[in-house]
Amino acid sequence: MLAALLAQPRRSILMYPAAMTSRSGYLLLAAAFSLSASGAFGAVLSVPETLGAPAVLGAHPGAGLALAPTPSVSLGFVLPTALPLAPTLAAAPVVALTVADVSAAVSPDQSAPPPAGRVRLFRDFNSRILENRRDVAVYLPPGYDEETARYPVLYMQDGQNAFDPATAYAGVDWGLARTCDRLIAAGEMEPVIIVAPYNTPSRLDEYTPVADAGDGGGNGDAYGRFLSDELKPFVDAKFRTRPEAANTAIMGSSLGGLISLHLALTRSDVFSRAAALSPSLWWAQGRMARWTRRARLPEPRPRLWVDMGTKEGDGVSGLESLRAFSAVLRKRGWRTGAGLEAREIEGAEHNERSWGARAAEVMKFLFPPVPPR
Asked: Which structural domains are found in the chain, ordered by start?
């Protein structure tokens, strides 16, 4: 089959049929990776997100790997005329991965992937305020190293879940770097630096503004000082940021969403935009809504995104808490389409996969593209 395709006078599309034996599939996958790395042709391999790819294959997204929502593998590639396959196949290692299905060959005129940003990891960042250490991942947008521009900054809670399946909960990350790369290349969002401090064993304590009668917690204001007085000065000194509150946002999910809302409403001198995905509005008997109803709120009002999935673990009560909180926000002056997005996400669950799936819409809300001058 390969010989017949290679003998054709034009480029040929090679697709691996599902009926091929596993050994043949392994060899074909190995050949694809080997040839792709040599620059002879392009290959795309989709692997199950649940495997923690691409880390499980020891590769990176730029090497032709993509995550798939279902446990299957798709491979498509273009072979140029008279490509010498025999030496490559002989030297190619066997990929230890079960092939379930192959489809969706890549068109010869498919567009190149968008320019990629990069993620730097700072190990054991020390906090004197919290008396602990944590890793901090920092995403730098495409072109950062070639330009002199300054960028707005997003601070994201549970940073281990943002970019890397190897560190993410249950091996599923948000894919936030890939999402931002795509949106920035398409002109759908402003380029941004993302600072993603990992959580610690004190997560519940740090991500809650007050104590809950049953669960404790309540050290959220100290966590806010860690962000504003320790981490932010480090980031602003090391990277080309736009440090003003007007260019600084905060985001999180679950308890991370709760603390993000709290800090946007109490530290508007630092954060002017916030996104809370599936926030734990139930905390301390719904204290966030009660506090917002009577608190002295900042001016100008921060831009707020709040949402909840229709299939979250707490079911209807989660949606009711979202509706009650968004109603309070509207009574206090926020308006949908003018600084407020309160959404019920159909079919979404309380997990990283669901949050990552809607991250693109969130990022476009927080950092809309800047009109050309």
From this structure: 2-91 (no CATH), 118-366 (3.40.50.1820)
